[in-house]
Amino acid sequence: MERLFHISTTPKYIEWFNDDWDKIKAFSEKHHMEGIELGLTMDYDINKIPEGVVKGVHLSFYPMWLDFWRGDTAKVEGLLGGHQAMLDYYGGASKEVMIECYKAQYARAKALGAKYMVFHVSHICMEDSFTWQFDYTDDEIVDATIELINAVFPADEEGPMLLFENLWWPGLTYLDKQVTKKLLDGVKYGQKGLLMDISHLILTNLKIGNEKACYTYVKEVVQNLGELKEFIYGVHLNKTLPKHYMQQDRSYLVERYREAKTPQLKMRVLKQHIQKLDPHQPFDHEIAKQIVEYINPKFCVYETNPVDIYEMAYFIKRQNLALGISYK
After folding, report:
1. DSSP run (H or E) holding 274
2. What is the C-alpha to C-alpha distance for residues 178 and 175, in angstroms, rounded to an integer?
3. Nearest-10 Cα torsion for 226, 165, 176, 122
């Protein structure tokens, strides 16, 4: 198993290391990591990145895309606030822009020599993230995902593994074995598998309030996947304990979201809500070791959300200690 940590080529992370990949490599080695999973923005010059540092590439994600994919631009414009807002969100007015965007990301992942790519299988209308009321199903989203993936990734081409990541919204949640199997069977690209984000899985059971309950739940879900467990090649290791937040009255949040006068204000309310649910905190309890050993992935990625490089080092150390990695 390779232990990796997640960064992206957004200014936040690049500035921490002064855009110096020798510093990133030295940081990785200092903290007993074997490389990084990279959120690779399209504007970043990959020629700066030395060979062998990037093990995985996290592909971009359109949280709300199903209606756009189906060509229902009137609905999309209504949800986003107009035609220009739609163009800004997707980069164009038809699903071909999504296909071309992912083709370009695939080419860059190959050029970097990445071992795997990560793709979120989910769709969420923004207001529904507050209400938990959905008028779309796991099957619908998986069917559309299969169409998209088969339009992007050639069936007969050798490339990095394509790992499908779960979310707690409709799509791939791992709670339905048949939906998971449909996805793997429907995708024609040969190098495919699954990546389990621990916090995202925990958020499918909002009663979880402690780490031991996390382990019990993860083990139960993985057992129910049966033989599909063998396709879980990656894990995003992080922690959330949603019970306390979900017991609070959150009705004011959806009211604030609806009353927000600008898209920027709406996004601010949405981000506050998502960060409460999925804070990307380190899984620093000793039971993390049992979770990772039970899943037995090829890649264990520390995907956290630190505020600076010092907190990132601290988060990595906390998870290393939880997994039994000693510091001398």
Report:
1. helix 263-277
2. 9
3. -170
Distance CA 105, CA 314 (A): 31
Cα–Cα dist 318/257, whole Å: 35
Tokens of 322: 């939880």
SS3 assignment, position 148: helix
Rounded CA-CA distance 69/67 in Å is 5
| Entry pTM | 0.97
pLDDT band at 250 (very low <50, low <70, confident <90, very high): confident
Q: How far is the first Cα of the chain from the last one, in angstroms, to the nearest whole number?
A: 21
* DSSP reduced 3-state for 60: coil
Tokens 């024609």 found at: 188
pLDDT tens digits along 174-232: 999 999 999 999 999 999 999 999 999 999 999 999 999 999 999 999 999 999 999 99
Give the model's pLDDT for residue 328.
67
The correct answer on CATH 3.20.20.150 for the domain covering 2-322 is yes
